[in-house]
């Protein structure tokens, strides 16, 4: 894409060209993208408010809002409710191998790992969960729904299943420790490895986009994985969705 660079007057107002066949909101989006590409606006920086941008470009806030929506659809900015709009970080490498650990992967990328529980409850194994965990259809499992973050930016949603009654205390342990590895250790699993990983892609639904601070319809990388303990017994089956704008899955051999 060729970005339109707009001139500014002596008062710092950037002039939007009228009557040239390019909508004002697109000109503004291109100008902000140019600032991002040139790193005048760096990853993680907060953009000016809608009101400030409206003043800068001498347009109404509706026009600015449409420009920001366009930038979000390009994967360049992220709007966070109550905090503002931020320049997206470059995609974070996320290695997938026999010892895949979320917190370790995020720390290795030089970022701070975080996460929170969205829901946790006991349910029964559907056919996919039963097959993955090698348990009977309808057997009790603990389901843990989480959003995982890097430097406070949400990068993945996960639905993890653990066979009961072995992992009855896992949710409380996860709330205390904030990591699956430590929660599993609290349940007696000293070590585990990745048995299988399946990767595909699809577009984000409205609810997923909201939870991940994404524009609706952005690409998700979906990962289904099975972890086993040192006796090769399945202990965890996870269906996860990663924001493709923020993560780069790296399959290690």
Automatic annotation (TrEMBL):
<dbReference type="Pfam" id="PF07702">
    <property type="entry name" value="UTRA"/>
</dbReference>
<keyword id="KW-0805">Transcription regulation</keyword>
<protein>
    <submittedName>
        <fullName>Phosphonate metabolism transcriptional regulator PhnF</fullName>
    </submittedName>
</protein>
<dbReference type="GO" id="GO:0045892">
    <property type="term" value="P:negative regulation of DNA-templated transcription"/>
</dbReference>
<dbReference type="InterPro" id="IPR028978">
    <property type="entry name" value="Chorismate_lyase_/UTRA_dom_sf"/>
</dbReference>
<dbReference type="InterPro" id="IPR011663">
    <property type="entry name" value="UTRA"/>
</dbReference>
<dbReference type="InterPro" id="IPR012702">
    <property type="entry name" value="CP_lyase_PhnF"/>
</dbReference>
<dbReference type="Pfam" id="PF00392">
    <property type="entry name" value="GntR"/>
</dbReference>
<feature type="domain" description="HTH gntR-type">
    <location>
        <begin position="22"/>
        <end position="90"/>
    </location>
</feature>
<dbReference type="InterPro" id="IPR050679">
    <property type="entry name" value="Bact_HTH_transcr_reg"/>
</dbReference>
<keyword id="KW-0804">Transcription</keyword>
<dbReference type="InterPro" id="IPR036388">
    <property type="entry name" value="WH-like_DNA-bd_sf"/>
</dbReference>
<keyword id="KW-0238">DNA-binding</keyword>
<dbReference type="GO" id="GO:0003700">
    <property type="term" value="F:DNA-binding transcription factor activity"/>
</dbReference>
<dbReference type="InterPro" id="IPR036390">
    <property type="entry name" value="WH_DNA-bd_sf"/>
</dbReference>
<dbReference type="GO" id="GO:0003677">
    <property type="term" value="F:DNA binding"/>
</dbReference>
<dbReference type="InterPro" id="IPR000524">
    <property type="entry name" value="Tscrpt_reg_HTH_GntR"/>
</dbReference>
């Amino acid at each position: 894409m060729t970005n339109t660079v707009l001139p500014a007057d002596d008062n710092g107002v950037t002039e939007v060209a009228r009557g040239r066949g390019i909508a004002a909101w697109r000109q503004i989006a291109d100008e902000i993208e140019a600032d991002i590409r040139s790193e005048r606006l760096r990853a993680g920086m907060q953009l000016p408010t809608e009101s400030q941008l409206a003043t800068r470009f001498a347009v109404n806030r509706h026009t600015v809002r449409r420009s920001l929506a366009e930038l979000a659809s390009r994967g360049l900015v992220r709007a966070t409710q109550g905090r503002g709009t931020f320049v997206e970080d470059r995609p974070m490498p996320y290695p997938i191998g026999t010892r895949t650990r979320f917190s370790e992967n995020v720390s290795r990328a030089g970022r701070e790992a975080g996460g929170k529980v969205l829901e946790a409850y006991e349910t029964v194994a559907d056919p996919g969960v039963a097959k993955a965990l090698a348990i009977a259809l309808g057997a009790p499992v603990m389901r843990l729904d989480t959003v995982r973050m890097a430097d406070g930016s949400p990068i993945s949603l996960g639905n993890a299943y653990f066979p009961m009654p072995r992992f009855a205390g896992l949710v409380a342990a996860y709330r205390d420790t904030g990591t699956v590895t430590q929660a599993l250790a609290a349940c007696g699993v000293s070590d585990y490895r990745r048995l299988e990983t399946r990767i595909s892609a699809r577009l984000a639904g409205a609810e997923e986009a909201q939870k991940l601070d994404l524009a609706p319809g952005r690409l998700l990388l979906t990962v289904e994985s099975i972890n086993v303990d040192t006796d090769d017994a399945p202990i965890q089956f996870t269906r996860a969705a990663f924001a493709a704008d923020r993560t780069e899955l790296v399959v290690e051999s």
